[in-house]
Amino acid sequence: MNAQTLIIVLLVVAVVFGLGVVVVNRRRATPVPPETPPTDNRAPEIRSAPPRIEPPIVEVGDAEAVVIERVVEPVVEPVVEPVVEPVVEERAPSFRERMGKAAAAMAGVLGGVRSRQNIGNDTWDDLEEALLRADVGIGVTTALLDGLRERVKAKAISTPDELIAALAADMSSRLHGADRSLRFDDSLAASGQVNVWLFVGVNGVGKTTTIGKVAAQQVAAGRSVILAAGDTFRAAAAEQLGTWADRSGAELVRGAEGGDPSSVIYDGVQRANAKGVSLVLGDTAGRLQNKSNLMEELRKVRRVASKEPGVVTEVLLVIDATTGQNGLAQAREFTDAAGVTGVVLTKLDGSAKGGIVFAIETELGLPVKLVGLGESIADLVEFDPNEFVGALLDVS
Amino acid sequence: MFDNLSGRFEGIFKRIRGKGRLSEADVDEVLKEIRTALLEADVNVGVVRNVVARIREGAVGIEQSKALDPSQQIVKLVNAELTAILGGETLKISYASKPPTVILMAGLQGSGKTTNSAKLARWFKSQGRHPLLVGADLQRPAAVEQLRTLGSQIDVPVFSEPGDPVTTATRGLAEARRLGKDVLIVDTAGRLAIDDEMMAQIRQISDQITPNYTFLVIDAMTGQDAVNVAEAFHATLQIDGVILSKLDGDARGGAALSVKEVIGRPIAFASTGEKLDAFDQFHPDRMASRILGMGDVLTLIEQAEKAFEKDQAEQAAARLLEGEFTLDDFLEQMQSLKKMGPLGGVLGMLPGMPKELKNAQIGDDDLKPIEAIIRSMTPDERRKPEIINGSRRQRIAQGSGRSIAEVNRLVKQFSEMQKMMKRMGGMGGGKKGKRGGLGALAGLAGGMGAGPGAGLPGLPGAGSAPGGFPFPPSR
């Protein structure tokens, strides 16, 4: 069959399909009002602004006046900041306490496993269900259980309790050895450079809140911090970050709504350099990983953020614990675009267990660095694999 | 990673094709694949168990039928099962006899309540209503500010005041009455389903404003937890419908299936993009094939809608069925098609396309010769290709820089296509005709050298709704 024939046939198929879609949908459609003029300023803007001529360089004085301002927000009505965040608690909560509620559902399943005398088909089904319910995913679950089946067959494991303990040990050991510390290079300040941590992820995972909390913790640890409001897309995202700046004692750098996020981050770095601030936390707009233009935009943010004197030392992917198997795709695509160095798992205090990070860490080698267990600043804690697995399987 | 359900089946069915009927072991194997596909799509484990059991029941009767081969029947069965769960009655908004119609938005943090409140307001506006938005999310910093900004973008007023969310919501209702608004949408703070205090608070809001509709906003990327969340909110609030957000991502959205199955309330709306007009009532038929990973029809449809001019497309389609589709029309639609992105990608998204066609590497450059040939024709020739004789052929070939044989082939295939379309148009007419036409075209492709066995277990007869163009088997 020759190429042209094929192409024509395909074309016809595709054209007919296109026509069908449009026409049929039109018949079905309720009258649609005239399109509102695009409010989306972040369409494919990638080609604009050659990176060499960064806008903020123009005039420092001007930039400070216009672009860079500490938002004390006199404009915003008091509505914006009503319920005050519970003030920092001293003791960081443990996983187990927080995940206790989440583990309850799981306990029923594993209780069933324990109550049996032997390891039978029901046992395997229950274990599988427990892992699947935790969003660990069918692939990883099957791999974990296949390994255990071998050992049961070889009589290395004989009771249900041993089996659960072995599963927990397997899972923990797969998470061991990763470096989970946040990378901050102290030596940069000496050479007049600035640490930059970028926060990326899909919409609604809690990036801005996470930055706020990280900022508060870093300030409390004695570092000077600038928050760069790189989410120029979502309405009032900069105000939200501004509130966090006020709470944490960090400084806010913001740009115009709908502006170029790269330039905001760049401004942040410039500002940090000028004022001797050692750490810039860069917020970015939430974006779905299949939107190629937005991922390109993120690529640019990453590139521009590492321009002198900025050194990107962390790119943290924020993932919501309720996320299912799509989390793996998120991790893959964001790593491709922005070079993710670690994962922050948020909202683990709900009924979701966040098992997808197990797949992300073991398959992509991205360490989980922080976990969000609640709304207060102290609720953002370091990830502990043993506690995580323990809470996941309800074993101690 | 597995590509899609039909891809998985292919291997199994290749082995059992000769048998003609399925043994129990075969059925088990197929069901296992279905189970995996559903789990990878984030359908809840418990729901998967029920669905698979029901499919197993249906699969028992499969060997009797002669019309379709077992693989096609199973895919059909699965699709029908999922559509049945997702579908049922779609939510019809009935407006309160004494306005305003009150709507309460609920959900987890970050599920998209604020954005979808605004989108919903815009939707009501497009239905000729006059909504008022109430910002009762006093928890998240700047949430009200966000709602105000969105409200001003769609020209819908926003009411909010600091203090207590319950009071704010109640006062919002009074405000709507005072302003004579006929729809009230109350945005609330995100809350965890296990947070008793916060759940009690939204219960209080609900008691105060007695909503006509309570919508639960669920992120399409949600995993197994969707069921717990839906159950908890339903127990507290009596959910009337679900708004599925972020459906423009590449998550398969099994959560939609789980939630529908567990609380039995319809998915009322789906949000399919960041812009405020990317929001519409939910179409269950598209979702079934998406969960199964059988061609991303949804995306394709959206791209097509964007790329093709509606009026023009409608006319062209009519002409196509009457057999009056000219090369000019073809050229025009080809331009629209190009706007949809690389042709290879477009074809890949068509469900049930034979693999040989799917994998064909076709770039926009491959379209150029065809374009060149058509552009080298006179208007008369484009309208009536049959007038093209030897000397015209030569001129066209020279003009386009292609060989005479290529010109010949194009003309010949175009006229065959035209004939077939005419036949289809005359036979069924309307939608049906088009569908038959598509099938015939796929058949044509198969017959022209894609070889025997090129067809996949498509979705025979499934998806009777507009979105899901099924491709009848090409054998």
Largest sheet of chain B: 8 strands, mixed
What is the CATH T-level topology of the largest domain in chain B? Rossmann fold
Unreliably modeled segments of chain B: 428-475
Please give the count of helices of chain A. 13
Oligomer, anyone? Answer: heterodimer
Strand content of chain B: 5-15%
CATH architecture group name of the largest domain in chain B: 3-Layer(aba) Sandwich
Estimated helix fraction of chain B: 55-70%
Question: In which order are the strands of the major sheet of chain A placed?
Answer: 3-2-4-1-5-6-7-8
Radius of gyration of chain B: 26 Å
Low-pLDDT residue intervals, each spanning 5 or more residues of chain A: 24-90
User: Would you count the extended β strands of chain A for me?
Assistant: 8
Structurally, the number of domains of chain B stands at 3
End-to-end CA span of chain B: 29 Å
Total DSSP helices of chain B: 21
What is the element string of chain A, with H for helices and E for strands? HHHHHHEHEHEHEHEHEHEEH
Please summarize the sheet with the most strands of chain A. Answer: 8 strands, mixed
- Give the overall average pLDDT of chain B: 78
Percent helix of chain A? 40-55%
Going by helix content, strand content and strand pairing, the class of chain B is: alpha/beta
Spatial extent as radius of gyration of chain A: 25 Å
